[in-house]
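Re: that chain you flagged

S.,

Sorry for the slow reply, it's been a week of failed gels. I finally had a moment to sit down with the sequence you sent. For the record, here it is as I used it:
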Amino acid sequence: MAIPGPSEVKRTLADVVADRKTQMSPGGRFVEAYQKDGLDAAVEFDVTITDSVSSHRRKPRYPTRNMFKIVNLSAEDRRFYYHETTARPDDPEVPHGRERRELANHFHMSPVPELLTTTAWVQLPDGLWEDPVAFEAFINSRLVLRLSTAENYTILCGETGLLGMPGVTRLTSKAPFSSTILAACDEVEQMGCTADGLVLNPVDYYRYLETSQLIDTLERNGVFIVRTRLVEPGTALVGDFGHGAELFDAGRSTIRFAEAPAGTFSEPGIAVKAEIYERVVLNLPFTFFLVTL
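Prediction finished late last night. Pasting the C-alpha cells below so you have them in one place:
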C-alpha cells in the first residue's frame, strides 16, 4: 500500500489557519473593491466566508458550522440526500433487531432542498474607510463574525433549524447516568452511531465547569462542544453531527454596500451587508436529542 504524500494527508485546523494567513481576507477583498468603486463596491466570493472564521483566542470558541459534514454544492453535483427513519410499531421483527436497532430502519431519498439566505449587517463608523487597515479589520472582525452568529441562528433556530426539526427527540431522563447529556450519548450509541457534538448555552457550560468534571470528560472523549446563546438555558443539543446530518453550502458569499431595512439600526449611517446560502438536513434524525439538563 502506498504511503499518502503530504498533499493527501488531511490538514489539521492549524494548517487551515496557516493557509488562510496567506490568502486575502474577506475584509481585504472588500477594501480593494471600495478603493476602486466607492459606495458601489460589491464582492462575490467563491467560498462561504464564515468558513474563514477561526479562533485566535487562547480560549477557542467555534461556530456551529464546524460540527457538520459540509457539502459544497458549487463543487459537488448533488441532487439528492439519504435519510432514515426508525421501525414502525407494526413492522415485523428483523433478525438481530433488538440488539442492533438500526437494522429495522427504513431508508429514504429526498431532493437537496432550496438553500436559505443568511444575512448580517454593520454600519461603518464615519471616516473608517480612510484607513484601509482599520477598514479591513472592521469587516473581518465585526461583519464576518456577525454573519457567523446569524449562521448559528439559521442552523439552530431558523425556519429549518435543528432545534425545531421533526425527529429530534426531547430527553428528560438521565437514568442510569448522573446527566441527561450522558444518557443522550448512550442513546445515540444504542443506534449504532456516536455522539460527537454538544451545543449548549454558555450559562450551562460555565455551571458545569463550576460544579462538575463533565465538560472536561466529554472533551477528552472527543465530543466537540459549541456554546451559544441560541440554545435555551437548561437545555442542550446532543447528536452525531459527523454522520447524522449534512450542511448543504452554496460555496459562495457576497459583501456589498446596501440600504438596510427600516429598524435594522438605531440611527442612519452607511451600511454593509454580507450574505451566505446554506441549509442543514438530517440524515439520521434519531441520533439527535434535545435534553433537559
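What I noticed first: Residues 1-13 have pLDDT under 50 and may be disordered.

Talk soon,
D.
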